[in-house]
Every structure is written in C-alpha cells, then in structure tokens.
Amino acid sequence: MDISSANSLSYEDFVDTFGNVVEKNPLVAAAIWSHRPFANLSELEARIVEFIDKLPESGKEGILRCHPDLAGRDLQRGTLTRDSQDEQSQAGMASLTPEETARMYRLNTEYKRRFGFPFIICAKMNNKAAILRKLSERSGNDLAKERECAIDEVKKISSLRLRNLVLPDTQHKL
Amino acid sequence: MDISSANSLSYEDFVDTFGNVVEKNPLVAAAIWSHRPFANLSELEARIVEFIDKLPESGKEGILRCHPDLAGRDLQRGTLTRDSQDEQSQAGMASLTPEETARMYRLNTEYKRRFGFPFIICAKMNNKAAILRKLSERSGNDLAKERECAIDEVKKISSLRLRNLVLPDTQHKL
C-alpha cells in the first residue's frame, strides 16, 4: 500500500497491518496511529524509532524480551511469528547442522544469562557465519553497550518489515 | 504462586505468565522483569502502573487500542483473549439481547469515532446496566479526561488479573 492508504486505516486495521513491525509489540503501531497522517514512509518509520527511543531502559529491554531466540525453541516448534520464520529461514537458521544448532543453543543460553534478553540481529542482513561470529563478539559487550546494539538491530528489522508493507517514498512519487 | 516464585521466573516464563495482565501488551511484563525482585504483589503492581504512567499520551492511547470492543466482533467470533472472554461473560456481555447488542455496537462506534480508541471499563466491577450507562456518560467527556478515565479502568483490570496469578501480600505472610 502507499502512505495515503496507510493513513486512511482505522486503528484496528492499522494495528492488524503494522502490529508486528516491532516483534510481538502491537503497542508501537497502536501508539503511533495517534500521529497520523504521516507525510511519507520515512515519517512513519521515524515515529516508530521515536517511540522506542523514548522508552525507559527497562522498556527497551522489554522490547528485546518479546523477541524469540535465533534458531531456538520457537523455530523448532513452528511457533515463530511469520515474519521471524521468514527472516530466520532466509539467514539459514532453519537448516543448521545438529552441531551448529547445539552451538547456537549454548551461545544463546550464555548470552541470555549475561544480559537478561535474547540475542537479536537483523537476520536478513546477515548470513549464518556472520550471525555466529557476531553472537560471540557481542557477548563480550557490557550491558549498556549491548542493549544499544540490540535495539539498533530491532530498528533494522522493523525498517525492513515496514518496507514490505508500504511503498517507499520515491516509488509513489513516480 | 507467591511473590518469590514470581521473582524466580526466567523472563520467558514471566512474560508467558504475566504477558496479558495488560491486554495484548506483553511489553509491560517484559519491561518490569528488569525490576526484580519485587518485595510483594503491591510492588509488582506499582511497577506496571509506573510503566503505563510514564508512556507518552500516544503510548497510553496505544495501550487502549490493544483492547477489544465490549460485546463486539471478537466476542462474537470467539477471538477474545481468555481473560477478556471471562470478564465480558461475567458482566453479561455474552448474553445481550439482539437489541442490546445493536445498542452497544452503535454506542461503541460513536465512542471510537470520537476518541480513536475503544470504550474500556473493568467489566468485573460492573454489570450490564452500569456498563451501558457509563458508556453513554463517558462519551460526553473531552479527550484528555476520557483517556485518563480509560487508563484508570485498564489499571483496575490489570490489578484483578494480577490477583488471579499472585497471592496477595497478606496471604503469604500467614
């Protein structure tokens, strides 16, 4: 849809459409509906970023905790959101060897014990090797630095999900 | 469970348990997990209230927009959360006459057009007659006043849901 179609949605339809742009956080879409009309996709995205940035640190950690593990229980059980399923599959997380699955599980568990939220990375911008490398690397960060890293990844994921739903600003000017 | 059991939950189990204390807003539970350990149920509840109160006005409206209509589409389709289903049934919303259903639909529609969020009331603290009366009355409020009213009702609903999950402070001192 183009931005004017997005602007014309009722809050119910807006939340149905954009409620998972931030994983399992319909509140973000439900909140930014107050700021309609959006001039363009960039403004819609900026409102999402603004909402996240204004949350207290515990709220940012809350956003992170609503995400599934990479190559974790939800992937194995088939209980990922459709967005996450597509993203994790594309990054090769659905076709790990048993050894790679075991390694991911071990690294995810250590990471969660250290930080109290799951390791999040924009899977569509990374392949399997890069994900494993960055999981190891980022585990060495302190909490404040890593929270910031993880929130930056949430914003990248949201940006790509949004671009699957709304035409980019340049396209609908043609 | 008692408060010490709640304090010992992983964030995954905490969000599974408390994720709908604020309707369809797992973010609230996921965020307040950062504040463990809670001294008692009162502190757990106070953290939820604090999270909601610190949201910007658009965020408070977002919380409201994640709620279903009373006696609305989700009730008819059986797609309410289990909490909402229990609460609406107990208040007689599942056994309205066709005339009452039509009146609720009309009043809800007018309310949503006026305020941009659904009419919310703690159904367990009201009966059918009181709900219909207050829906009419509150429709006359201005936006700021009504947003405040509705958020107060969200807090009452959350408080009762929380008390279904965690033993009151007095009980576990016995």
Automatic annotation (TrEMBL), chains A, B:
It catalyses: 5-hydroxy-2-oxo-4-ureido-2,5-dihydro-1H-imidazole-5-carboxylate + H(+) = (S)-allantoin + CO2. This is 2-oxo-4-hydroxy-4-carboxy-5-ureidoimidazoline decarboxylase. Catalyzes the stereoselective decarboxylation of 2-oxo-4-hydroxy-4-carboxy-5-ureidoimidazoline (OHCU) to (S)-allantoin. GO terms for molecular function: 2-oxo-4-hydroxy-4-carboxy-5-ureidoimidazoline decarboxylase activity. PANTHER family: 2-OXO-4-HYDROXY-4-CARBOXY-5-UREIDOIMIDAZOLINE DECARBOXYLASE-RELATED. Keywords: Decarboxylase, Lyase, Peroxisome, Purine metabolism. It comes from the Eukaryota. Pathway: Purine metabolism; urate degradation; (S)-allantoin from urate: step 3/3. GO terms for cellular component: peroxisome. One of its GO terms (biological process) is urate catabolic process. Belongs to the OHCU decarboxylase family. Its EC number is 4.1.1.97. Residues 7-163 form the Oxo-4-hydroxy-4-carboxy-5-ureidoimidazoline decarboxylase domain. InterPro entries: OHCU_decarboxylase, OHCU_decarboxylase-1, OHCU_decarboxylase_sf. It is found in: Peroxisome. Pfam families: OHCU_decarbox.
